[in-house]
Amino acid sequence: MDTIKPYIEQNKGRFLDELFDLLRLPSISADPKFKGDVLKTADAVAASLRRAGANNVEICETPGYPVVYADVLTDPSKPTVLVYGHYDVQPPDPLDLWASGPFEPVIKKTEKHPEGAIYARGACDDKGQMFMHVKALEVMLKNNLLPCNVKFMIEGEEEIGSKNLEWFVKRNHDKLKCDIILISDTGMLANDVPSITTGLRGLSYVEVEVTGPNRDLHSGLYGGAVANPINILAKMIASLHDEENRITVENFYDDVENLSDAERAEMAKAPFSLDAYKKALDLKDVWGEKGYSTMERNSIRPTLDVNGIWGGYIGEGAKTVIASKAYAKISMRLVPHQKPEKITALFEKHFTKIAPDCVTVKVTPHHGGLPYVTQIDNPAYVAASKAYEATFGKPAIPVRSGGSIPIVALFEQELKAKSILMGFGLDSDAIHSPNEHYGVFNYLKGIETIPYFYSFFAE
Ligand code: BES
Ligand code: MN
Ligand code: MN
């Protein structure tokens, strides 16, 4: 194992250059205009796996964007690790808030990343983190350190709900057969506080449409006499949380797993400064469900948030109008035992019930996903924990994350395998936001830590 560090040191310039090439491709899965670039990115990932020494590299077609598959099968009697990641990225908008082009990667030094961070869309989520696994494979193969079998499955539709990966997994149980799934698509607490993600929240995502009159109206001629769907929508949304900031959708909390006091006390041991948290976001105060800490609110508790709201006139100047329709996109993050279909149905029922007779409402479900948890006595978790100890010099803390990777629960159902979430990003890396970045330290430390996971897992 002592050849790992020198090999990375010698090759780090190239490791960064290769990642930069991938980051230059605008693989925005949500926008059909970028179809050609998304497909080119799949090719680039396949080529990089081939160069790293993988076999059976395949671009597997699906009804949507392809899945890149590759493997190195050393010995059928040894365990198999399946690496999952995604090569698609979120749209970079709003573009004017980026200090440099989202697809023109550059390294800049910051307070959180004194060794420099790579600025680009996808730097952390997930090209940078996914590519660590490709480079870790190279490190292991070049240094004769791969102790077991490895398969790669890199998809191009994670940011739009992984619909076709579900299609692919259901049809390829044998090809994807494995003992553990290894994923770097989450974060850790800080560069000197390594952590392993033991849970992900689920998701239920809906769009609502509120209709008032059958056409846009003059707000003087009709104002005050017919319902304004924007006013009504605002009021309906405001009523979705009560005085204690609990969600008012009937039966919403029925299946929520309540943690024991002991588990909550264990969680509270993770280092967290509320002052630093507020300062980083320029907030005078935080917000959330009464009775829970900030860490609990964004991990073990469910949420309901409006992601976008629109309607009426939003152009230059003023237009006196009562719009016929108003809209909102609403996401609900779910915790263990909540089911997205059930929550979506409860929401629809509630939202329809609270609508006054002066409007009609329509609720359209979008993608959803189940929550996920791993137990810390899982042998793969123990292997991951030892790996962090080997490279960071201290054990990793188990942390439940507030984010979602819906396909992880599906892997468990379909492939009967658990996932280990070895994320190396920081919450401050601005994923999905302008100026997304990923620490050079984090990138290289990830490449160094991953081979240790294989080594301890195969023991
Ligand atoms: N990698 C993120 C999820 C994530 C980030 C989990 C950080 C934990 C910590 C993933 O790419 C993502 O953005 N997921 C979406 C859900 C998806 C259905 C669009 C999310 O969480 O909003
Ligand atoms: Mn991701
Ligand atoms: Mn994402």
Low-confidence stretches: none
Distance between the termini: 14 Å
Give the H and E element order: HHEEEEEHEHEEEEHHHHEEEHEEHEHEEH
Molecules bound to protein:
ligand BES, manganese (II) ion
Helix content percent band: 25-40%
Derived structural class? alpha+beta
**What is the overall silhouette?**
globular
* Count of alpha/pi helices: 12
Lateral arrangement of strands in the main beta sheet: 1-2-6-3-7-17
Mean pLDDT: 97
Computed Rg: 23 Å
Sheet with most strands: 6 strands, mixed
Q: Into which percentage range does the β-strand content fall? A: 15-25%
The number of strands is 18
Short recap of the structure:
The protein has 459 residues and is α+β, with helices and mostly antiparallel strands.
Descriptive labels:
single chain; 459 residues; alpha+beta; six-stranded mixed β-sheet; four-stranded antiparallel β-sheet; 12 helices; 18 strands; globular; binds ligand BES; binds manganese (II) ion
What does this structure look like?
- This protein is α+β, with helices and mostly antiparallel strands and 459 residues long.
- It is built from twelve helices and 18 strands.
- It has helices at residues 4-23, 35-52, 127-142, 163-171, 229-238, 261-267, 274-280, 294-297, 340-354, 379-392, 407-415, 440-458, and strands spanning 55-60, 67-72, 80-86, 106-108, 117-119, 149-155, 180-183, 195-200, 202-211, 217-218, 303-311, 321-322, 325-334, 360-369, 372-373, 397-400, 419-421, 437-439.
- The strands form five sheets. The chain has a six-stranded mixed beta sheet, with helices on both faces.
- α2 (35-52) runs parallel beside α3, α4 runs parallel beside α11 and α10 packs across α12 (440-458).
- The longest helix is centred in the N-terminal third of the chain and has 20 residues, at 4-23.
- 42% of the residues are buried.
- The model has no long low-confidence stretch (mean pLDDT 97).
- The structure holds ligand BES and manganese (II) ion (2 copies).
- Ligand BES binds at residues 125-126, 158-159, 161, 185-187, 203, 367, 369, 401, 403-406.
